Amino acid sequence: MANENWDRLDRMLEAALAKYAAVEPRPGLEDRVLANLRAERTRMPVHAWWRWSVAAVLAAVIVAMALAWRSGKSSLPVVADHSTTQLQGTKEPVKQTGSDIDRAGVASVEPGPARNKMGHSHRHSVEVAPHPKLDQFPSPQPLSEQEIALARYAHQFPQEATLVALAQVEYEKEIQQQMKDTSPENGLSDSYQQER
User: Fold this and answer.
1) Structural domain contains residue 150
2) Is residue 176 part of a domain?
3) Total structural domains within the chain
4) What is the pLDDT of residues 147-166, one digit of tens each?
């Protein structure tokens, strides 16, 4: 009996699915779709080519601006001149182009200009930096007048200089403590205080 119920349910389901699949579209559906497509075509401007021409002109302007901006910069790399070579009998340093200097900063001599496939000679030159690259960064600077005066004071009055330095440290600690005490009231976070 259970088998018969399943068979009957199966036949009913198949009949419903067949009826659902056999449904024809409403009359005139194809005509309505085609009419909508034709209407959309007429709504679009036929002369949309001007948009493409404007886009092409904008692209050309952007490329021209980029090339003009790049041409303003020197295309030759700047090389630091570490050599201390001088001409004998003069005090002026030797002016060298980058092609005469190798990677270690030592001057080298090339046999002659390079020749390309067409036989035209050309020499690649590299601008030499106006000031040599310093070996230490930051470079040591001479003491300012204030620093010299402070050094003299500390040398002449060491006890007073120590007291002044300790007072300055205590003052800094007081300021930091006051800032910590007032930061929750003002809504300032600890990370903000650390940045200061």
Assistant:
1) yes
2) yes
3) 1
4) 999 899 999 999 999 999 99
Q: Is the dihedral angle over the CA atoms 13, 15, 21, 23 positive or is it negative?
A: negative
Q: Are strands 114-115 and 121-122 parallel, antiparallel or unpaired?
A: antiparallel
Q: Which domain, by its residues, includes 157?
A: 145-195
* Residue 129 in tokens: 């930096």
Report the C-alpha gap between 8 and 1 in whole angstroms: 11
**Residue 126: burial class (beta carbons within 10 Å; 0-12, 13-18, 19+):** middle
> Would the pTM of this model clear 0.70, i.e. be above it?
no
Range with lowest mean pLDDT among 75-89, 115-129, 155-169: 75-89
CA 85 – CA 78 distance, rounded (Å): 19
Residue 132: which of 96, 98, 82, 93 has the closest Cα?
82
- In the block, tokens 């088998």 appear at 3
167 is a domain residue: yes
DSSP class of residue 100? G
For residues 193 and 187, give the distance between their C-alpha atoms in angstroms, rounded to a whole number. Answer: 11
Confidence of residue 58 (pLDDT cuts 50, 70, 90): very high
Half-sphere exposure of 152 (CA within 13 A, CB side): 7
Indicate whether 22 belongs to any domain. Answer: no
User: Beta partners for 6?
Assistant: none
